[in-house]
């Protein structure tokens, strides 16, 4: 009996494809967004301690209270608003789960949801599975800032939600306070919810501050703010994230979460609760990555690629359209096979595969690996 797919257009993600290609061709993998180094040994030791001490059974559905409490205090410290740990914070299995549960809680069949493209690939399938209609709005050419006029003109009486992402993957764009005010104006007097993907909240550069929607009085009333400890502490494989939302939204969010995963890995939640008590553990992350961004961008200058240094995230985009007409997919493939450096073709972040001749590198790697990759990228002149 044939199974009619609910997601007929979804295949293997580009991240899996490129990582596999990197492996097959023994290339340096600057494609997928995961760090090439380990976390702080203190955090690893805390996980070992809590597993040894017997914290190995189901955690409470909404999270380990100690972690909810410390996340509330951290939110107050960073964004001047202290969410109620019991009713406004849930710990979940990665930001991917947070985004999925938030979209599922809000979207009903026929609802339109605005997505700003290029966009992370998990938003659209979640919308489709709820019977929603994704409405794609391109970010501005050049700096990938928000084209607010286009956003406003895309709103209809069917618009139910907007998904936003700051700092942005893949462009690194960081929202300004004027972006937040535009969004507040957009949803004012309308029944539009916001799903805010803030997984790179602790990776911003050049003194830029991450402005969470939690810190905006009007926006937080209608927003699900989604975050990821995996991104902040170099432990993407742990898949531990969170969602912060007002009680009435969180109540619906939890109805979904309890039947998706029910609860999230217990000893790691206890370890994070202890580790987050020391603010320097998360406040030092931007400085750590800024050194890597600067190092990588310095080297990129000699490759012939054009780029503006990322404002945030651990990705650097670069364009090559002034050098060649080949597609970004072909370039990514040739770079992997011939130069032994894997990257992501940015067309993969567009629903219709639009090719603006951009590639994305992940610079969350050891400096020696970045140095080696930059040396190999000198060969770009040969293949372009
Ligand atoms: C923009 C963005 N959102 C969400 C995620 C997923 O986060 P997590 O691993 O916590 O599910 C990623 C991971 O690459 C991402 O880049």
Automatic annotation (TrEMBL):
Q: Which domain of life is it from?
A: Bacteria
Q: What is this protein called in UniProt? A: Aminotransferase class I/II-fold pyridoxal phosphate-dependent enzyme
An example of a GO molecular function for this protein is:
kynurenine-oxoglutarate transaminase activity
PANTHER family this protein is in? FI04487P
Q: Which GO terms describe its cellular component?
A: cytoplasm
Name one matching Pfam family: Aminotran_1_2
Q: What InterPro entries does UniProt report for this protein, alphabetically?
A: Aminotransferase_I/II_large, Kynurenine-oxoglutarate_AT, PyrdxlP-dep_Trfase, PyrdxlP-dep_Trfase_major, PyrdxlP-dep_Trfase_small
Keyword tags: Aminotransferase, Pyridoxal phosphate, Transferase
**Which intervals hold domain Aminotransferase class I/classII large?**
27-377
* NCBIfam families associated with the record: PRK09082.1
């Amino acid at each position: 009996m044939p199974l009619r797919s609910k997601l007929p257009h979804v295949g293997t993600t580009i991240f899996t494809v490129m990582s596999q290609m990197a492996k097959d061709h023994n290339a340096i993998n600057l494609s997928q967004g995961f760090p090439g180094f380990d976390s702080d040994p203190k955090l690893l030791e805390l996980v070992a301690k809590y597993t040894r001490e017997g914290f190995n059974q189901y955690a409470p559905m909404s999270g380990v209270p100690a972690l909810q409490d410390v996340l509330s205090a951290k939110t107050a410290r960073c964004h001047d608003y202290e969410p109620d740990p019991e009713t406004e914070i849930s710990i979940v299995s990665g930001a991917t789960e947070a985004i999925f549960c938030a979209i599922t809680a809000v979207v009903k069949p026929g609802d339109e949801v605005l997505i700003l493209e290029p966009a992370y690939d998990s938003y659209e399938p979640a919308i489709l599975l709820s019977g929603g209609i994704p409405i794609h709005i391109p970010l501005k050419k050049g700096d990938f800032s928000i084209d607010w006029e286009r956003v406003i003109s895309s709103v209809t009486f069917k618009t139910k939600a907007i998904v936003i992402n700051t700092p942005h993957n893949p462009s690194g764009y960081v929202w300004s306070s004027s972006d937040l005010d535009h969004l507040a104006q957009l949803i004012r007097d309308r029944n539009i919810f916001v799903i805010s993907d803030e997984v790179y909240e602790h990776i911003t550069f050049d003194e830029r501050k991450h402005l969470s929607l939690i810190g905006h009085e009007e926006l937080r009333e209608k927003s699900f703010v989604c975050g990821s400890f995996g991104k902040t502490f170099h432990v993407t494989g742990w898949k531990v994230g969170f969602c912060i939302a007002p009680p009435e939204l969180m109540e619906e969010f939890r109805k979904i979460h309890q039947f998706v995963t029910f609860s999230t890995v217990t000893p790691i939640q206890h370890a994070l609760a202890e580790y987050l008590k020391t603010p320097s553990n998360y406040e030092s992350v931007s400085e750590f990555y800024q050194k890597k961004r600067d190092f990588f961008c310095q080297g990129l200058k000699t490759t012939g690629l054009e780029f503006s240094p990322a404002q945030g995230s651990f990705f650097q985009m670069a364009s090559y359209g002034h050098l060649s007409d080949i597609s970004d997919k072909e370039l990514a493939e040739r770079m992997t096979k011939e130069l032994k450096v894997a990257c992501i073709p940015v067309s993969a972040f567009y629903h219709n595969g639009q090719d603006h001749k951009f590639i994305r590198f992940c610079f969350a790697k050891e400096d020696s690996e970045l140095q080696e990759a930059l040396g190999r990228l000198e060969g770009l002149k040969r293949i372009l």
